[in-house]
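debug: dumping io for the single-chain case to check the tokenizer round-trip. Nothing else runs in this session.
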Amino acid sequence: MEHLADLILALHAGYVLFVVGGLLLIWLGIRRSWRWVRSFWFRVVHLAAVSLVAVEALLGVVCPLTALEDWLRATQSDEGFIVRWVRWLLFWDFPLWVFTLAYLVLALVTVLTWLRWPPAPPGWLTAAR
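debug: decoded output
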């Protein structure tokens, strides 16, 4: 169960990296004229990932990855070094409203980014080569 919990934690960290890092890469890519950040499917998946987090927060739903990892670790008494650090990076001790506000702001900024710099039509990247 410990290894499965570690896998879930790694997936969760990857999801967070995609949501936050994806937006930062979109902004950087727009500034540097990287064509791939205009990819329709990348942008749709990114917007969906951000929206899912915001909707979960609005509805007061605990992230399924957090719940699953906690359940898998229920009988585990010790965490390894990497697990401790990744959990420290992901899970902060703030009131829930702080996270809800942060997720909603992230979703709003993502939508505004979409509107200001919309993705290219599907197939544009492959057709432009």
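debug: round-trip ok. The chain is about 75% helix and 0% strand.
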